[in-house]
Amino acid sequence: MKAFILDKYRKGGALRFGDWPEPAVGDEDVLVEIHAAGLNPLDSKIRDGAFKPILPYRPPLILGHDMAGRVVRVGAKVRRFKVGDEVYARPRDGRIGTFAERIAVHEDDLALKPTNLTMAEAASVPLVGLTAWQALVERAGLRKGQKVLIHAGSGGVGTFAIQLAKHLGATVATTTSTANVDLVRRLGADVVIDYKTQDFAAVLSGYDVVLNSLDGATLQKSLSVLKRGGKLISISGPPDPDFARQQGLNWLLRQLMRLLSFGIRRKAKARGLAYSFLFMRAEGGQLSQITSLIEAGIIRPVVDRVFPFDATNDALAYTETGRSKGKVVVALK
Asked: Where is the Enoyl reductase (ER) domain (predicted)?
């Protein structure tokens, strides 16, 4: 089959378009013909070698963490899916590879595609949808009447998280650029901070949750927005000891994670706050709940551009500019 292949770690390097062996299909696997694949900053970071210490990848490999497509074969023990089903997924770590014509996905990572979305729209959802769900529902326990600040509201995670937080009954504040103020308001943001003209830390206070996807300076400033007992959740680091334990990292890496996050954890504790790092995981059950919200019209994915499959490197470069509104997708069909 055809695929875009990472031959070696290299910052900003192009993926090679070439032939790759057909996926092996285990008893609990579903073979999917990929119609569309979503792109994420995580793909660039893996390509650049930033995750070599904590993710079990050795080039050559196929990148890609989001896909939508059609089932063409099921393993002997698969019971929830059949040939012909339209599905989508964020394959689990160690089994990524959606920049390809086909992929074998564990049944537990898969969900039926929302019937009211195109393949391209569906491919934009899994990673950002699961990230928002695991941050706001699972970790923060966000509930009606609470206040949440979602940084980078016009990005992939941000556009999804704003809509999910509104559904949960929270008051939502977000940061964005001047050009995207109207977009985030349409998505449901109650308070919009234009970071080009306003300092969110000088405007906001008494928040229950902050979801950070930006740099360390923004992370530090976010502490002042939270009230005592609040939760600061970051998807951009620094990793913490709990993450190191979950990943099964060795002693040396666990100590490194402890040191990297020591400063922010100490400052959070001194203010009566909780800091945690979230590295989302594949979860087909949660994705099915997200499907229900999308089919009910509660959440609508935001897709900035759809590139043809042969322009995957161009799509990746566009994603890296940080200017996309919502997600960038490549279409194979």
From this structure: 12-330
